[in-house]
Amino acid sequence: MASEHNNLHYVIAVAAGLFVALLGRLVFANSTFNGGGLLMLCFLLLIPMALGAVTTHFTPATASKSWRTVWGPFVTVMLFLFMALLFHSECMICVLIISPLFFITSYIGSVLYLLFTDDKPNKDKTYTVAVFALLPFLLAPLESQFATPNSLRRVENTVLIQAPASVVWQQIVRVPPIQAQDLGPSLIDKIGFPRPVEATLTHEGVGGVRHATFERGVEFIETVDVWEPQRRLSFSIVPNTATIPPTTFDEHVTVGGRFFDVLRGTYELIPAGPVQTRLVLYSQQRLSTRINAYAGLWTDYVMSEIQRRILEVIRRRCEDEARKAAANSLSYQKHAI
């Protein structure tokens, strides 16, 4: 019976921490914060700290320190993230982004709670855990008064192609349809980002409009403003929001939304030998969150992976075309002889 009673305390501890996190999710998703509450520091940092403190507070004092500071909060965070996915309140990419923050800060919250309540009477422990639980909600109105900072980021990828610049240029101004097998597997597919499909061009030269399409109705309108044949192609990027279904992206990772946007793309062709070309693709993005440095690690990875795969498709196509051209030239020479 004593063992069952003790186990019940563990369940209560996890349930109490989970309740705080779910209440925070409900409050910060409220329209009071104009849809941006879930990216506030009070939610991303203070709510998981409160989760850790509350879970530790209700965990039996006989539990090991590792359970009180690590495993208890870890289980609670896992349940919270699982419920967010189960009830479709967050998409997979959002869960992946916030999970490291929640794991780390819940641990910090539990450690700080133990530090502040060490050898203190139960009444003081109750006051302390109440402060942890209430602080995110009390500070949220103050944080909401501060403007969200903007950050411009550049992501660059490079590939060496065994083909002359003339061949490479023809493969970048327009990108014929890409099959899934052409791209190969990638983590970004598994977390829900659509694959690139093709890029068309209305006409060559400055002012030409590329339509870069991705799976699930995602399209970007790219207006060419730098046209230097066999040297550089650069364009502004605007998402075609009319074609993108609202279910394709979560609000917090929507391209062209309040928090993230892709602004420009540039191809540069650099001669690397008689029949070699170094192709550089770089893009510029805007991030508008309170955790730009952290969120940028994720957006940089996703953009880099998209660009890397596109460059690999272009490389294979250019090298195939160069080999065919060389074979045809050799065949013509033999017939001429």
Describe the structure.
This protein has 337 residues and is α+β, with helices and mostly antiparallel strands. It has two domains: 142 residues, no CATH class; 186 residues, 2-Layer Sandwich (Alpha-D-Glucose-1,6-Bisphosphate, Chain A, domain 4). Helices cover 53% and strands 20% of the residues. The chain is built from nine helices and seven strands; from the N terminus they run αααααβαααββββββα. A seven-stranded antiparallel β-sheet has the order 1-7-6-5-4-3-2, covered by helices on one side. The longest helix has 45 residues.
Q: Secondary-structure element order, as H and E?
A: HHHHHEHHHEEEEEEH
The total tally of domains equals 2
| CATH structural architecture of the largest domain | 2-Layer Sandwich
Q: What's the number of helices?
A: 9
Structural class: alpha+beta
CATH secondary-structure class of the largest domain:
Alpha Beta
Quaternary class: single chain
Q: What's the alpha carbon Rg, rounded to whole Å? A: 26 Å
**Averaged pLDDT:** 90
Spatial separation of the terminal alpha carbons: 98 Å
Strands, total number: 7
Quick structural overview:
It comes from Hymenobacter tibetensis. The chain crosses the membrane at residues 6-26, 38-58, 70-87, 94-115, 127-144. The chain contains 9 helices and 7 strands.
Key structural traits:
elongated; Alpha-D-Glucose-1,6-Bisphosphate, Chain A, domain 4; 337 residues
Helix/strand layout:
Elements: H1 2-28, H2 41-58, H3 65-86, H4 92-117, H5 122-143, E1 151-161, H6 165-173, H7 180-183, H8 187-190, E2 196-201, E3 209-214, E4 219-228, E5 232-239, E6 260-273, E7 276-287, H9 292-336
Helix pairs in contact: 1-2, 1-3, 2-3, 2-4, 2-5, 3-4, 4-5, 6-9
